[in-house]
Amino acid sequence: MKALAESGDVEAQFYVACMYEDGQGVPKNHDDGGVEETAQSDCVGS
Q1: CA distance readout (Å), 4 to 14, 19, 20, 32, 43
Q2: Residue ranges per structural domain of the chain
Q3: What pLDDT, in 10s, does the model give residues 1-17?
Q4: Which residue of 16, 20, 22, 30 is 20 to 30 Å from 36, comparing CA positions?
């Protein structure tokens, strides 16, 4: 999926972004760094 996203596939870019938002495919960092979530997500299940 990431390769498709990197090649410009818009739908794949959306799904990769949702995966990253959910913490999938990235190292875990439990320190939120003081960031507050204020925006509504378009990702299903978020």
Answers
A1: 11, 14, 15, 29, 18
A2: 1-25
A3: 889 999 999 999 999 99
A4: 16
